[in-house]
Amino acid sequence: MTPDSPVPYRLTRVGVVMTPEPGNIQEAEGVLNPASGRGPDGELYLLPRLVAEGNVSRVGIARVVVEDGVPVAVEREGVVLQPDRGWERGADNAGTEDPRTTWIDALGLHVMTYVAYGPLGPRTAVAVSEDLRDWRRLGPVLFRYQDDLDMDLNLFHNKDTVFFPETVTAPDGSEAFAVLHRPMWDLGETKPGQGVRVPAGVSDERQSIWISYVPVASVREDLANLTLWEQHRFVAGPEFPFEAVKIGGGPPPLRIPEGWLVLHHGVTGVIDSAFSQQQKVNYAAGALILDADDPSRVIARTPEPLLAPETDDERSGIVPNVVFPTAIEEIDGRHFVFYGMADSKIGVALLERTD
Questions:
Q1: For the segment 182-199, what is each residue's pLDDT rounded down to a tens digit?
Q2: Is the pTM of the predicted complex or chain greater than 0.90?
């Protein structure tokens, strides 16, 4: 790491791997923001968000077609999660949105975080699978109360959540699973008139990346405890111009020599209601490096985006001007990043070191 290259990585566009299928009503409003993973057959799969008319989202599964070591297309293989639970549906809305999947060796499972778009708005939930196809819901996430924050994190909508692939040491010294998340401080989105509320010690009201932990011992007792998050810490907030409005996490953190590489998105523009499909924003991809031993500590970050909306596919769509990274996979020794393009298509970029 150097002052000129604090995060020694770059992203280079490779192409578009998935576009809405003509005539498929489940994809009428786009395919985007995929999770990913290797199945028991060794094949690479995407789990894209499929958006039907009325902004109703499901999670699909599609095998990635690789040619000469490069992902070029997908073959659809159905739907693996849809809003068929009461808490994933509201009177006029429904959705299982923006999945992130992490293979956690310590559990022998793929762990999915996703957004349940239910009666009170977006809420993080967890599901697990051995094969990427059959998912067992563990339920909505609960944030254990932490008095020094003077705030109950369960009050807030929360998105952009993703687990680390390895256990870490929690602030209390215990072995723990760690998860990044992005609380949304505007309680007015749930109860009009309440306005923006932030925890004690937080001076910047813009949405930022936080980390929480789950004790390994508690999960060994009961897998359902994977939904009970504790020891909450601020990680990173908006700092550079491309992050002026808010930031949020992306794919599962990638272990690198310097620590943990976290691709994130930075947002500029004007945010409408949290429930709207935004039209006046710009989403770009940046990166953080978190300390290997204390992943709540940022040791480097990109002052400018690694990838910003520049192509027609990234600039024109359901939500224009969006590059939204959500998955990283290794193919033939190289890492590729899959990302949402304008909330309409899925692109792929090569992730390479620059030193």
A1: 999 999 988 999 999 999
A2: yes
